[in-house]
Write a structure and sequence with these properties.
With 265 residues, the chain is mainly alpha-helical. It contains 13 helices and no strands. It is elongated and about 70 Å long. The N terminus is likely disordered.
């Protein structure tokens, strides 16, 4: 009598209901997160709810998952836009820095810096001040020692673009951001990367169409204070500063004298 060969049963295919349920739950969580972010951002414009909203956004940043990062950053970028109130723009700029402090890494840094620097064109002086402080804070987080040249470029590229603006106010705000970047770099600062600034500074100081020479001369003073002016960059820089001593603007002449004083120390 022939023996029957029993075929082993194939395991049932994995149920698609569990994976679809997980996907649906994740999608729902993202919708809820976006609504929470937008609600808190809308409350920043009201003095009565500003602090509570800022704290809620900080808590969101602290518990943020990689899936929600792009959504949060895009919402903060939008909150720095022209149509927003100054209080909202300033807080959004601060929260971008807070995000960088919590989630250390350079993946999003270039875009964050670019959006912050865009606001140096803002008509509100408080927003421009927030940009300067934000650049300083980011510098203290990311610029330390040698080997960070690629990170320094992330700061300098949008700042030099702003220096090329036709507005004296925008030029001055960009120069002050750059000065804050140098001043706030962690010890030891990236001296070799800062050395390269001198050549470009000389070109701006010698350019009659560059209007914010006084602000840029303050950057020279700070570069001198941190020891970031190379011997080969000193001579052309001195020549440019001496030319500024005969400038028709009192603020430029004073800043030139202060820069010379800093270089003598």
């Amino acid at each position: 009598m022939a023996t029957k060969i029993l075929k082993s049963k194939k395991p049932p295919p994995p149920s698609s209901s569990s994976s679809s349920s997980s996907s649906s739950s994740s999608h729902l969580a993202m919708i809820e997160l976006k609504q929470r972010i937008l609600t808190s951002l809308s409350k920043l414009s009201d003095r009565d709810t500003h602090q509570i909203a800022a704290e809620d956004l900080e808590n969101i940043i602290k518990s943020l998952t990689p899936e929600g990062t792009t959504m949060l950053l895009n919402s903060l970028y939008d909150a720095t836009g022209d149509t927003q109130k100054p209080a909202v723009k300033k807080e959004a700029i601060r929260l971008l820095c807070f995000f960088c402090a919590i989630h250390i890494g350079t993946h999003h840094l270039g875009k964050i810096i670019a959006h912050i620097v865009k606001r140096v064109r803002d008509s509100d002086s408080g927003v421009k001040d927030a940009c300067r402080e934000a650049i300083g804070e980011l510098s203290s987080l990311y610029l330390k020692g040698e080997g960070v040249e690629s990170v320094v470029v992330l700061f300098l590229k949008p700042l030099f673009e702003a220096l090329n603006d036709q507005s004296k106010g925008v030029q001055a705000a960009a120069a002050m951001c750059m000065a804050r970047m140098v001043q706030m770099a962690s010890q030891p600062p990236p001296i070799s990367a800062f050395h390269k600034l001198c050549t470009r500074i000389c070109k701006y100081l010698s350019n009659p169409n560059f209007l914010a020479k006084a602000a840029l001369l303050q950057l020279v003073s700070i570069l001198s204070q941190v020891g970031a002016i190379s011997p080969q960059g000193l001579e052309p820089l001195l020549q440019s500063i001496h030319e500024c001593l005969t400038n028709s603007g009192w603020a430029t002449r004073k800043a030139a004298a202060d820069a010379l004083s800093a270089l003598d120390k």
